């Protein structure tokens, strides 16, 4: 049976263990009451409104495969206590903190997790496959294995993954949303976002030293957290192939230092490293780096249904502020289906911008009908 995981963001006023236990009990009771009847479609909003002590960002209900549950109708009533797993956490609101490991340009930025700014990302990313839950489950499982004290010489895990794919397909957003979800499930964490470009120094022979200092900083920071997610965007700039003839000696030293650094942090149990790249083809990325990755996932475009969902989200948001109108919801849905077909193959980034761009080309202003905008898209 599906285990129901309830991610429960607590309001800052809930602090003591007894307050937290009151909130978790209220969630269980509430679930048991409403599981007797048909589950209302507004369940998330209902629960959040009904339970004192929850943050207004709302509960997230997941299946045990860490994917959001769409329907609850198959769950038994009342729910057996063993099928409910409540994970309370606080959403952080701190500003991102740029840091430098050598008192020059910032080399990395720290963001405490789970963070309010990352909260909506997971549910607004749409893929034709289950890549979100696959990557989340994979990293959670590797963290679990590490915490069991496996012998590293027998069962080797680097907790290092690579997301590849064309520009604008959501690699960085996926990495951020997975970091957020991991920290929601585990209760807290820190995001360490590496500034790849600042690591290769203009001073000859400095890069290797800078990279060493950065990995030592990652080690020090991670010691204070149960979970540290290191995000390296455009990793090809850090680990471009050493076979490349134009690579200067400093670059080779830098790549060597990254590889040594990765080997060092794999021994830190709560650390996962997520890298992204859109240049893996044609041996641009060093083979020794690729062989250290536990998993490489190709991130695809959103597919027809995903295109429709992204367009719908944009339209709903513009409707909320009265920029677009929707006279007939059924008509809009069929137009979304058609636009989804026409937009298949385009990147998520392009689709997110499409409605606003077309609205502007149609003269902008308040009150344009959303179906007319969809009709004009990619036609
Ligand atoms: N599949 C998707 N579903 C919903 N939104 C998406 C999707 N793919 C991309 N987007 C949106 O497009 C924008 C760009 O995404 P992002 O920066 O993560 O892409 P990227 O793959 O990292 O691009 P690049 O290779 O240029 O770094 C974000 O606002 C993101 O939310
Ligand atoms: Mg990116």
From TrEMBL:
Lineage: superkingdom: Eukaryota
Classification via Pfam families: AAA
Coiled-coil positions: none
Keyword terms, alphabetized: ATP-binding, Nucleotide-binding
Any one GO CC term of the record: chromosome
Annotated GO biological process: meiotic recombination checkpoint signaling; reciprocal meiotic recombination
Domain AAA+ ATPase: 157-303
A molecular-function term among this protein's GO annotations: ATP binding
Protein name, UniProt field: AAA+ ATPase domain-containing protein
Lineage: Eukaryota, Sar, Stramenopiles, Ochrophyta, Bolidophyceae
């Amino acid at each position: 049976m599906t285990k129901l995981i309830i991610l429960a963001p607590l309001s800052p006023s809930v602090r003591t263990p007894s307050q937290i236990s009151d909130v978790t009990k209220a969630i269980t009771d509430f679930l048991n009451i409403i599981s007797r009847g048909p589950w209302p479609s507004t369940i998330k909003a209902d629960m959040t409104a009904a339970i004192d002590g929850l943050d207004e960002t709302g509960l997230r209900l997941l299946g045990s495969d860490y994917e959001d549950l769409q329907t609850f109708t198959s769950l038994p009533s009342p729910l057996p206590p063993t099928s409910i797993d409540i994970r309370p956490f606080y959403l952080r609101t701190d500003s991102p903190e740029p840091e430098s490991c050598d008192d020059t340009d910032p080399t990395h930025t720290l963001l405490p997790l789970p963070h309010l700014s990352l909260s909506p990302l997971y549910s607004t990313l749409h893929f034709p496959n289950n890549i979100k839950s696959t990557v989340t489950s994979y990293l959670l499982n590797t963290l679990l294995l590490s915490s069991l004290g496996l012998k590293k010489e027998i069962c080797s895990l680097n907790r290092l993954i690579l997301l590849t794919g064309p520009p604008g397909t959501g690699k960085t957003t996926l990495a951020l949303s997975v970091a957020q979800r991991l920290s929601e499930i585990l209760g807290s964490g820190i995001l360490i976002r590496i500034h790849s470009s600042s690591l290769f120094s203009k001073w000859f022979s400095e890069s290797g030293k800078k990279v060493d200092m950065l990995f030592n900083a990652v080690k020090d920071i991670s010691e204070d957290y149960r979970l540290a997610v290191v995000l390296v965007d455009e990793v090809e700039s850090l680990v471009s192939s050493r076979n490349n003839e134009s690579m200067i000696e400093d670059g080779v030293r830098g790549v060597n230092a990254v590889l040594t650094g990765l080997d060092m942090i794999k021994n830190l149990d709560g650390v996962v490293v997520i890298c992204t790249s859109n240049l893996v083809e044609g041996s641009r990325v060093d083979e020794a780096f690729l062989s250290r990755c536990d998993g490489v996932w190709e991130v695809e475009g959103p597919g027809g249904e995903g295109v429709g969902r992204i367009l719908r989200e944009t339209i709903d948001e513009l409707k909320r502020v009265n920029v677009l109108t929707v006279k007939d919801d059924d008509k809009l849905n069929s137009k979304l289906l058609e636009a989804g077909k026409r937009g298949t193959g385009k990147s998520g980034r392009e689709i997110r911008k499409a409605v606003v761009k077309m609205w502007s080309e149609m003269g902008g202003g308040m009150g344009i009908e959303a179906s007319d905008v969809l009709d004009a898209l990619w036609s």
